[in-house]
Amino acid sequence: MAGEIKIVESGVDHPEEACGIFGIMSPDQDVARLTYYGLYALQHRGQEGAGIAVSDGERIGVKKGMGLVSEVFPTPDCLPKQKASLALGHVRYSTSRSSSFANIQPLLFRYRHGCLAVAHNGNLLNGDELRQRLEADGSIFQTETDSELIAHLIARYGHDNLIASLKAALPYIHGAFCFAFMTDDILIGLRDPLGIRPLSIGRLGKGYILASETCAFDTVGAEFVRDLAPGEMVVIDKNGLHAEQVLPSVRTALCIFEFIYFTRPDSNFHKENVHLVRKALGRQLAKEHPVDADIVTGVPDSSLAAASGYAEEIGIPYEMALIKNRYIGRTFIKPIQDDREFRVGLKLNPVRKIIAGKKVVIVDDSIVRGTTSLRLVNMLRQAGAKEVHMRISSPPVIAPCFYGINTPSTDELIAAQKNVQEIKEMIGADSLAFLSRQGMLDCFNLPPEGFCLACFSGEYPI
Questions:
Q1: Which of 55, 155, 264, 356 ranks highest by number of CB atoms within 10 Å?
Q2: To 10 degrees, what angle do helices 420-427 and 371-382 make?
Q3: Domain's final residue, options 203, 219, 250
Q4: What is the mean pLDDT of residues 78-96?
Q5: Residues 457/417, Cβ–Cβ less than 8 Å
């Protein structure tokens, strides 16, 4: 491809995470503490803010703040105090434009039927249009979130109860969303008609849990029940769980990057284990693009399974040639973002005695801008690698996401501007290859039409 791409040093080189939701109704459990542990399990989905709302049956209290779960709730004493049987938690990722305390969720609203806490994962495509229309009609907004939009719609199209109000509001929202709502005495989960963002149901004792990933159930000792179906709403109250199809759904379009990058490897979606899928992606990548090398290594953490699959298939040793500093969080990185040369070095360190004199295959899950790939190749060469071959366990990312994942514009996506040979030269690798789209789909037991592949194809399901 012709054309130049501007390397944006301030941007990340992976899609930024979605948000994480954890909601629980259980009369015989410490729901605030369980939500705290559940959010810990979902921390990888959002690291800019965290919050927990609890209800004692009469009122809702909220504690939230900027930063990691451990920073917002440094001790158990920081959890909401009242004895409760209902809780709703959220970890947030946002763009820098909307990173502020006001946008940290759950959001708490008071309307004519009482209190309503709202948590959201995804993005409403008609959010700006709805906001302008509601503002023109006199609505006053306190945040920049889609969660506040749905609350305004619920209040505006109000009926005698929340369920009826929510059903009346749903035809007005379009996009990718998982919502969780909590009142004084009920918990509600809702998934968009295509199921782009995930939401699952778990059971703990006599209670039920809603979570963005099944790893949260394992953390709190809950049993996985099932995934919410696209367009389904579940209502959890003192009488149990009630499900209803409230939005028509003709197909599923689960975000395939949930498997490739975002999700913890011990989580499962639609009966597929994330770790096993990533390992299969690595095996398929080795079949399509083998290389004569001495060792294979992966980029911690999301690429390790793919790297081990690649090594097993090609028949050469898998080594932990890059070690991750697990105590470097976003809050530490942010104050020194001008020190670009140190950003990768702070997070990853090469094991020189493993790398020196070797022909190394490094497996990563994706290339977005190319800046991190360039630094990784340079890091391995400086550690004495004889050759560096980069393999990517997904197809080239050529289009931005509008469904709740922060990817750059097309102008900043390296694969939308350059071909594979040009990218190889830019990052300084001896060779570069991506997994084919068909090869990727062959690694799933799910039908190909069950995924959103927009970032790889530019064809959007909505």
A1: 55
A2: 50
A3: 250
A4: 83
A5: no
Q: Which residue numbers are catalytic?
A: 19
Rounded distance between C-alpha atoms, residue 244 and residue 356, angstroms: 59
Question: Is the Cβ–Cβ distance between 20 and 94 less than 8 Å?
Answer: no
Domain that holds residue 355: 268-457
**Bridge partners, 359 (sequence order):** 387
Residues 181 and 296 in one domain: no
Task: Please report, for residues 415, 421, 435, the alpha-carbon distance to residue 4 in angstroms, rounded to integers and kept in the order given.
Answer: 11, 14, 24
| Residue 3 domain flag | no
């037991």: which residue's tokens?
Answer: 445
The verdict on 59 and 187 lying in the same domain is: yes
281: number of Cβ within 10 Å: 28
Pick the last residue of a domain from 250, 284, 301: 250
Looking at the structure, tell me whether residues 279 and 406 fall in a common domain.
Answer: yes
In this structure, is residue 215 part of a structural domain? yes
Contacts of 182 (CB under 8 A, 6+ apart): 23, 53, 55, 60, 86, 87, 88, 106, 116, 117, 118, 188
Please report the pLDDT score of residue 5 as a whole number. Answer: 29
Distance of CA 19 to the CA centre of its chain: 6
CATH number of the domain bearing residue 375? 3.40.50.2020
Written as six digits, the tokens of 109 are 């609203």
104-155: pLDDT as tens digits: 999 999 877 789 999 999 999 999 999 999 999 888 898 888 889 999 998 8
Q: CA–CA separation, 370 vs 338, rounded Å?
A: 18
Domain of 127, CATH number, reads 3.60.20.10
Closest by CA position to 162, among listed 145, 183, 180: 183
* pLDDT tens for each residue of 340-371: 445 666 788 999 999 999 999 999 999 998 98
Instruction: Give the pairing of strands 107-111 and 114-124.
Output: antiparallel
Same domain, residue pair 288 and 369 = yes
Q: Are strands 207-211 and 187-191 parallel, antiparallel or unpaired?
A: unpaired
Q: Are residues 190 and 322 in the same domain?
A: no
Note whether 214 and 77 are same-domain residues. Answer: yes
Count of domains forming the chain? 2
What is the rounded radius of gyration, in angstroms, for the C-alpha atoms of the chain?
23
In sequence order, what DSSP letters do the residues of 365-418 get, joined into one string?
S--SSSHHHHHHHHHHHHTT-SEEEEEESS----S---SS-B---GGG-HHHHS
Name the token pair of 111.
Answer: 């309307």
Burial of residue 12, with CB atoms counted within 10 A of its CB: 0-12 exposed, 13-18 middle, 19 or more buried = middle
Same domain, 292 and 347: yes
Which pLDDT tens digit goes with each residue over 213-246? Answer: 999 999 999 999 999 999 999 999 999 999 999 9
